[in-house]
Inverse folding.
């Protein structure tokens, strides 16, 4: 039997990962992108992050820039901007990762499964035929085929192009 080692995840699994002092969806500073934060995109109303603990390669998180816990708290402008960001992020993933499908959704409230319940966010998870095979079922392990920083580098130019479009 071969062993799959993922030692970088142990602090997260044990609950010992350093806690961030701010909301994950409100990254410090004003940078439009930041590799250390896995921030791919931030404009006036929305942002996109790579999920540090992904379900699949390219798993993105899209959120309104303003702290809001539910869709009902968004203005019409924020709602439209967030849905447009989800749509554009999905297109970028299609272009670069060629998935066979997507799981896109949000959990509103802790009881519904939201890990960060006080800041609304959408998960955009690329899916491929056979992507969750025997190893997920037998060993409760997910395999991610590309390092998260390589995925960031691959997606960033297209998200920067979106920001440039908004600036014009």
């Amino acid at each position: 039997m071969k062993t799959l080692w993922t030692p970088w995840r142990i602090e997260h699994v044990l609950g010992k990962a350093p806690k961030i002092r701010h909301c994950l969806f409100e990254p410090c500073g004003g940078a439009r992108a930041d590799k250390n934060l896995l921030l791919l995109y931030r404009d006036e109303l929305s942002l996109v992050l790579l999920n540090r603990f992904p379900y699949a390669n390219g798993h993105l998180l899209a959120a309104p820039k303003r702290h809001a816990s539910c869709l009902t708290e968004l203005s019409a402008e924020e709602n439209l901007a967030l849905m447009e960001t989800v749509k554009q992020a999905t297109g970028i993933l299609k272009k670069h990762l060629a998935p066979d499908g997507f799981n896109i959704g949000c959990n509103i409230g802790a009881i519904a499964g939201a890990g960060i319940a006080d800041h609304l966010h959408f998960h955009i998870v690329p899916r491929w035929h056979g992507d969750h095979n025997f190893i997920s079922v037998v060993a409760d392990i997910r395999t991610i085929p590309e390092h998260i920083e390589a995925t960031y580098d691959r997606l960033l130019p297209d998200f920067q192009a979106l920001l440039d479009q908004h600036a014009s």
Observations:
- The mean pLDDT is 86.
- The domain at 9-167 is CATH 3.30.428.10 (HIT family, subunit A).
- The first helix runs from residue 10 to 13.
